[in-house]
Design a protein that fits this description.
By secondary structure, this protein is mostly helical. It contains 10 helices and no strands. The chain is globular and about 50 Å long. The chain binds protoporphyrin IX containing FE (HEM).
Length: about 190
Amino acid sequence: MMQFFKKYLSIISYYVLPLLLIGLSFIFSERGIAAENDFYGTLGSFSMLLIVVIVFAKPLSQIFSWKIFKYIVAFRRQLGVASFWLALFHGVLYIRLYDLFGIESFVGSNNTLYLLGLVGLVGIALLGITSNNISVKLLGKKWKTLHRIVYVLFFVILAHYVVAEGSVFPAVFVGFLFVALKFVAWRGVRLW
Ligand code: HEM
């Protein structure tokens, strides 16, 4: 059952999603159409949601013995790759929409939103590119260390979200909840 799910989720996240995003990007690439709806923003929201799910899954699976959390932990690689594609299209489409070419678009206090996004995107790209068995073999122990940066990225993306939305509370709430869950899991608390 698990292998069956994993196989189809892999096909979707490695092949179907990027192809779908290429198609949708063409449809939404015209500036007028992009400005009229929040397609680009929605891609970022889904990407962030997947990162939240990925980092929450581990402590939740340690605290609760529910199967769903174990499944998510097992599928983190596929979910991570899907998050990478969504972030890549979100970032690149905004770079094109707002002409963010050149380093000057990412420095200075007016560009905090873009700088945080870029740092997040570079990080997710590193993880996305190394989310395969060959990289696991080549990097050995370093692979685990590298993939721990997902926790740093999680906070970088929360900060990007704060600047984008102009509201602090939701991101701070999610951040605190994560720290609290990690702490509870680390203390060895087991419920259900
Ligand atoms: C170079 C990289 C990036 C650029 C240039 C960029 C740009 C933007 C811009 C301009 C917005 C504001 C949209 C608006 O409200 O009008 C935004 C919002 C957002 N971004 Fe990014 N971003 C980047 C990377 C990322 C990454 C890597 C993630 C997540 C993994 C992400 C997640 C989000 C989210 C969740 C929002 C708020 C959603 C919304 O406004 O609907 N972004 N980004």
